[in-house]
Design a protein that fits this description.
The protein is of the alpha+beta class and about 250 residues long. Helix content is about 30%, strand content about 25%. The structure holds copper (II) ion.
């Protein structure tokens, strides 16, 4: 309920509800702390007003209520972090949690000022060779199209297509500065860093078109660094892929 009030976008991933539950709980907890602190603040203003206390007390608080309260907050926060936050994160990043390579749809996402490139390996599951010397205006990822592994590859600009319910592994990097690949609807985000390719995975559960944004201030065009993510059925995905192939490999 608080999540909705604060404008969270619809959840479209299998694990998303776990993130939402935790967010919801955090928001309620923060609201409770906020109200508590404000109430205490107002109480202190009245209770310790100069007119009521002409002389300072050199002993201060003698009870232990404040210590107990502080400890309760610390314990709740520790439970949130160690009991919920870390295990959730672990399920996204540990090697054992990743889906089977053959089963998953694998994509390379490459950020640049200011857009996202998506490289798909095609039916062979092998990404074509890349070389920095081949990078050009119409080959933003420098793919060596003469490499046999690249024969069924495609590169899509600012449009990532996914198959509904197929586990998806996106490996993220950047060509220039640090960007951040944020899929709010999938409840997952990963920084895009030049020089390293970091994998993340999720399973989409709802067809639709969603927004991909850059979550790291990366330059003057950062605000416009958006792409779209289309979750669709296999047949729609295949026909999109075929069209993209026809554009990139006109001979075939
Ligand atoms: Cu960016």
């Amino acid at each position: 309920m608080l999540n909705k009030l604060l404008g969270i976008v619809p959840d479209a991933s299998e694990h998303g509800y776990l993130v939402d539950h935790m967010l919801e709980f955090c928001h309620w907890f923060m609201l409770l702390l906020f109200v508590g602190w404000i109430a205490y603040f107002l109480y202190a203003i009245v209770r310790f007003h100069r007119s009521r206390n002409p002389r300072a007390s050199y002993h201060g608080v003698t009870g232990h209520l404040s210590t107990h309260l502080e400890f309760t907050v610390v314990i709740v926060e520790a439970v949130l972090l160690l009991g919920f936050g870390l295990p959730l994160w672990g399920k996204r990043v540990t090697e054992e949690s990743f889906p089977d390579k053959a089963e998953a749809l694998r994509i390379h996402a490459v950020g640049e000022q200011f857009g996202w490139n998506f490289h798909y390996p095609g039916a062979d599951g092998v990404f074509g060779r890349q070389s920095v010397f081949l990078v050009s205006g119409n080959n933003p990822l420098g793919i060596d199209w003469s490499d046999p592994a690249a024969a069924d590859d495609i590169v899509s600009k600012n449009e990532m297509h996914l198959v509904n319910y197929r586990p998806t592994v996106v490996e993220i990097t950047s060509k220039d500065v640090i960007h951040s690949f944020a899929l709010h609807n999938m409840r997952i985000t990963q920084d895009a860093m030049p020089g390293s390719r970091v994998p993340m995975w999720f399973r989409p559960k709802r067809n639709g078109t969603y927004e991909i944004v850059c979550a790291q201030l990366c330059g003057a065009g950062h605000f416009a660094m958006k792409a779209s993510m289309v979750v669709e059925e296999v047949k729609d995905f295949d026909s999109w892929y075929k069209d993209a192939m026809a554009l990139l490999h006109p001979a075939k």
